[in-house]
Amino acid sequence: MHSEARVTASELLAILSARQLRDGQVVFAGVGIPLLAATLAQRLRCPGLTILFEGGVIGAFIEPGRLPPSTNDQRCTARANMVLGSAEVLLLLQRGYVDVGFMGGAQIDQYGNLNSSFIGDPARPKTRLPGTGGGNDISSLTSMIVAMKHEKRRFVENVDFITSPGWIRGRSSRCESGLGMGGMFRVVTELAVFDFDEETRRMRAIALNPGVSCEQVQANTGFPLVFASDLGETEAPSADELAMLRHLDPDRKYTA
Q1: In this structure, what are the phi and psi dihedrals at residue 46, rounded to the nearest 5 degrees?
Q2: What is the per-residue pLDDT across 151-189, written as a single tens digit (0 to 9) for each?
Q3: What's residue 75's pLDDT?
């Protein structure tokens, strides 16, 4: 039975990510783990959380077992407050009405820049990825949470292409590039939770997941990591968190 099954890496990602959200926030969520995490937070701790989708849905309330595969899917509109066009919902970002952006990515670097465009030489890329969509708008104008699997090939010193800007080249470079609001807030993986040093803007581990060592995190990271002086340990998923998560995704489409 699901209630007795082991916690998967994706379930851990969703639960730890959900804990980063606060009641009353407006969150721009991508599909997959970001959407599942936002919905989990909404059900358990943040009844006043408002979820937005790039497809134009405002105030989504996702039905258990009917997680949409795309932000343009009509399942996103069930019990929503409003449905706008994509341009109108992106204008809400520019007006400062969105608190948090919540996405994943193929690559992330030491300053939180995300790549979802291509891997390799831009002239002859090894792999072509989906591209930006609204990712650039979201990361340019909100405080960002990123949830992704922790692998050395994903956590690189410099991304092959900046699809969604984090702290650019660190320190004040984001502001100097014309992005005066937002910035990378948290990165959540199956190994640890990270923030970004307030001065250098480099990625910094602030809590390790149970049973994970600093050496293990560093071995899976393609650049030298900073570890907080008060490095903590995350709490293991609770029975309530797991039960609700498995209620929302009973077929484990996103959490297998």
Answers
A1: -130, 70
A2: 999 999 999 999 999 999 999 999 999 999 999 999 999
A3: 78
Residues 6+ apart with CB under 8 A from 235: none
In a domain, 256, yes or no: no
* In a domain? residue 253: no
This prediction has a pTM of 0.94
Q: List the domain range (segments joined by +) for residue 107.
A: 2-248
> Cβ contacts of residue 25 below 8 Å, gap of 6+?
46, 49, 50, 99, 100
State the residue for tokens 């509109």: 77
Alpha-carbon dihedral angle through residues 237, 239, 242, 247, given to the nearest 10 degrees: -160
**What's the total number of domains in the chain?**
1
Taking only the tens place, the pLDDT of each residue in 14-68 is 999 999 999 999 999 988 899 999 999 999 999 999 999 888 999 988 889 988 8
- pLDDT tens for 128-137 read 998 888 899 9
Q: Which of 54, 157, 190, 241 is catalytic?
A: 54
Q: What is the CATH number of the domain that holds 86?
A: 3.40.1080.10
* Residue keyed to tokens 């600093």: 214
Confirm whether 254 is domain-assigned: no
Quick one: tokens of 205?
Answer: 């581990």
Is 142 a member of any domain? yes
Known active-site residue 54:
yes
Of 10, 2, 245, 7, which is closest to residue 148 (Cα–Cα)?
Answer: 10
Q: Judging by beta carbons within 10 Å of its beta carbon (0-12, 13-18, 19+), is residue 86 exposed, middle or buried?
A: middle
